[in-house]
Pseudaminic acid cytidylyltransferase (Portibacter lacus), 230 residues
Amino acid sequence: MKILCIIPARGGSKRIPRKNIKPFLGKPILSYPISAAKKSGIFSEIMVSTDDDEIAEIANISGAEVPFLRSIKNADDFATTADVLLEVLKKYQDLGQEFEFACCIYPTAPFVTSEKLKEAFSVLKSQCKDVVIPVLPYEHPIQRALFIEKGRLSMLHPENTSIRSQDLPRRYHDSGQFYFFKVSSFLAQKTLWMKDTGAITLSHLLAHDIDSPEDWKIAEMKYTLIQSGQ
């Protein structure tokens, strides 16, 4: 059984320049998911898909393979993650390599752990899912969402006004960390949101979106707190 880890890390980044290799607590942020993937012991190969020579060099130093560079077409702002994964799997097929399972880990996900990767893979196999995604519970019930229109604050679903928060069903969102999937299902459906999608849940301490310099600082503080065991 061959299992591939794919980390998509292109060179361009608008909001945070060189985001995929920017130092995170002294190390390129790309090195964190590579380390988690290696520690999991799951993968036959850990590769980074990039169009950038510097990123490729850092990936190699961190212990990942860069067997080929990403095409120009899939290195722009409009290429989807699915586009990149399809290209990677096709190039491996051209090299005579087939994989039964694969996991796409985002390069700016320093909170990914080997334990969660193993948990997701276990669910993928034991429940025969197409894909397993780590999710986070919304911190406040989305059924009590508000909106502002013409200066007036209103409830999106006023029927929930008098329902206690704890009595509303829990809802979740994608953590933006990784997708563990069955390759044949992905090649057939060409999307990471597949017909039979499973999930594992994360605590808010083990995930953090990094979309701005402020997010970056908060993520470093959170990561330091976790490492200190507090």
Q: What stands out?
A: The radius of gyration is 19 Å. The chain has one domain: 3-135+173-228.
